[in-house]
Write a structure and sequence with these properties.
Elements: E1 2-10, H1 20-28, H2 40-61, H3 69-84, E2 90-98, H4 105-115, E3 119-124, H5 131-144, E4 151-153, H6 161-175, E5 184-191, H7 195-199, H8 204-219, E6 224-230, H9 243-252, E7 256-261, H10 269-285, E8 292-293, H11 301-314, H12 321-328
The structure holds the ligand C=CC1=C(C)c2cc3[nH]c(cc4nc(cc5[nH]c(cc1n2)c(C)c5CCC(=O)O)C(CCC(=O)O)=C4C)c(C)c3C=C and fe (ii) ion (FE2) (2 copies).
Catalytic activity: heme b + 2 H(+) = protoporphyrin IX + Fe(2+); Fe-coproporphyrin III + 2 H(+) = coproporphyrin III + Fe(2+)
Pathway: Porphyrin-containing compound metabolism; protoheme biosynthesis; protoheme from protoporphyrin-IX: step 1/1
Protein name: Ferrochelatase
């Protein structure tokens, strides 16, 4: 049996309160996040991580002190492995390579080498490609991997039909009890980026828009929708509209927001704290009648199947017939 390793790339997060500052330092010293030459970047990273430490620690305390991102990604890894291992003649194993905290990308490489991987699939848990996420992870991997196994890079999958249908399923479930959909608005919220990153050619925003268009086309529910961007950090101008402002505007117009996190595929600080606590509080202050947050696709069977199809396609193994039918439809 051929052994194929799948590395799931994600951002990572602090596991304990003591990890918060070094995690933030790693994030802000990434040249794909802060486009400044060394050593200025390290100086800035030191400053920002020191300044943000206490408030970020307080946010991570809402989730028991650290980020659930590793546990969530672990569940996705096991679900994907189980799905892939129904394929004859190939043994799959999924490894986790985080960009800014443990288990780091080099730890994933050591583990897959110890396992004896003969082929590697690089699978970012970012459906939409960005230089700040996917490219940063891939370059880190390329620098660290010294082995000879062929590597297949999955760049993005913003309109993968199973990813799209996973969201359609979750949205339909979240709005099923609503009597009058005219009183609600879908807010697709993606992590924002500095505008200059997009102007520099980053396809992220375009791909977020493609994901939303595909989900709306599949959803078949008569509800108004808008795209917005959350989690702005720092002094630069970021792409908009901002999620918090869009929530306020929605509440003030007498409608209630149904928030769909569209660029995150698992639960972590940006969904559990920013969306579920901070923005919910804002909406309530603005007098919202209701506030609904659709869960991330996490281990939704359709999503895991979508990831599996991406992996099988990347290694040249014929995709399941179902996916071909879905594409043809
Ligand atoms: C689509 C995914 C993401 C993009 C694009 C992205 C860009 C980006 N992020 C920051 C700054 C921070 N991000 C932080 C946490 C965080 N970011 C993502 C995803 C994307 N980031 C995830 C999944 C997480 C959560 C990790 C967790 O611990 O649960 C943080 C730390 C938390 C906080 O203080 O808000 C920062 C800071 C920038 C500057 C940026 C693009 C330039
Ligand atoms: Fe981020
Ligand atoms: Fe953020």
């Amino acid at each position: 049996m051929k052994k194929v390793a799948v590395i799931l790339f994600n951002l990572g997060g602090p596991l304990t309160q003591a990890d918060v500052k070094p995690f933030l330092y790693n994030l802000f010293s990434d040249k794909f996040i802060i486009a400044l030459p060394t050593p200025f970047r390290q100086i800035i990273a030191k400053l920002i991580s020191t300044r943000r430490e206490a408030s970020a620690q307080a946010n991570y305390r809402y989730m028991g002190g650290g980020s659930p991102i590793v546990k969530e990604t672990e569940a996705q890894a096991r679900a994907l492995e189980a799905h892939l291992n129904t394929t004859p003649d190939i043994e799959f194993k999924a490894f986790i390579g985080m960009r800014y905290w443990h288990p780091f990308i080099n730890e994933a490489i050591a583990a897959l080498e110890a396992w004896g991987a003969e082929e590697i699939v690089a699978l970012p848990l970012y459906p939409q490609y960005s230089t700040t996420t996917t490219q940063s992870s891939f370059e880190t991997f390329k620098k660290a991997y010294k082995g000879t196994a062929p590597v297949h890079f999955i760049e993005d999958y913003p309109v993968n039909p199973w990813f799209v249908s996973a969201y359609a399923v979750l949205i339909r479930k979240a709005v099923a009890h609503i009597e009058n959909l005219d009183d609600y608005r879908l807010l697709f919220s993606a992590h924002g980026l500095p505008e200059k990153v997009i102007l520099g050619g980053d396809p992220y925003q375009r791909q977020v828009e493609a994901s939303v268009a595909a989900i709306m086309a599949t959803l078949n529910v008569p509800i108004e929708h808008v795209i917005c961007y959350q989690s702005r950090v720092g002094p630069l101008k970021w792409i908009g509209p901002a999620t918090d402002e869009t929530i306020l505007e929605t509440a003030k117009s007498g409608k209630s927001p149904v928030i769909v996190p569209i660029a995150f595929v698992s639960e972590h600080i940006e969904t559990l704290v920013e969306l579920d606590i901070e923005y919910k509080h804002l909406a309530e202050e603005a007098g919202t009648k209701d506030y609904i947050r659709v869960p991330t696709v996490s281990v939704e069977p359709d999503f895991i199947r979508g990831l599996a199809e991406e992996v099988l396609t990347a290694i040249g193994y014929a995709a399941h017939t179902e996916v071909k039918e879905a594409i043809a439809r």
